Amino acid sequence: xxxxxxxxxxxxxxxxxxxxxxxxxxxxxxxxxxxxxxxxxxxxxxxxxxxxxxxxxxxxxxxxxxxxxxxxxxxxxxxxxxxxxxxxxxxxxxxxxxxxxxxxxxxxxxxxxxxxxxxxxxxxxxxxxxxxxxxxxxxxxxxxxxxxxxxxxxxxxxxxxxxxxxxxxxxxxxxxxxxxxxxxxxxxxxxxxxxxxxxxxxxxxxxxxxxxxxxxxxxxxxxxxxxxxxxxxxxxxxxxxxxxxxxxxxxxxxxxxxxx
Length: 260
What we know:
Structural class: mainly alpha
Helix content: over 70%
Order of helices and strands: HHHHHHHHHHHH
Strand content: under 5%
Distance between the termini: 45 Å
Radius of gyration: 22 Å
Oligomer: single chain
Number of domains: 1
């Protein structure tokens, strides 16, 4: 009777089991950030050094999208600038990149946590009581853990999964992730144009016009192609890509780095 009562209680309180998983998930992710930190237990193969180097340009008065172009969405580029400023307020210890990496990892862990919660909510709608198994499956994936400390991937994934959890379609959630960049890009372009208005001559207008038209057409083709693909297909290929890439990284560690 006790075992039966316990099973019944778990079925009636699935949120309690998910809360336990969420606690373990966050604790393990935070531990992974320290494990993969610069100067930690693996070699530095991430883009973290590049992010910090770009953010350090603020020492010379250069800011993203105002003074230089960035291939990353404005939110991400400005995020690293803010992280770099905060990291400098903390006394250096061990590796000079440590606090930047730790703060960057905290942001990505927060994004990963949002992804897990959104995934669980979606799975509850689709699978009911089987949602916890879906959450466990994501929690055990290797690639999201490895990407925490050195890449932006957790942020766009959290944006899309959060949109889906709120009831948006795949297409609408992806469009929303693009729309987030529009205000920042327009604002930065306006500030840059105003600051350089004295250096711009009438003869430069055709050059700017050509650049604007070409970049607009290229962006339109690429984004429309992506949205068309998403409207006809699911995120399953992306999931398989992450799984295969994660396995490849494990093999790389095993053969070349000798971590295990």
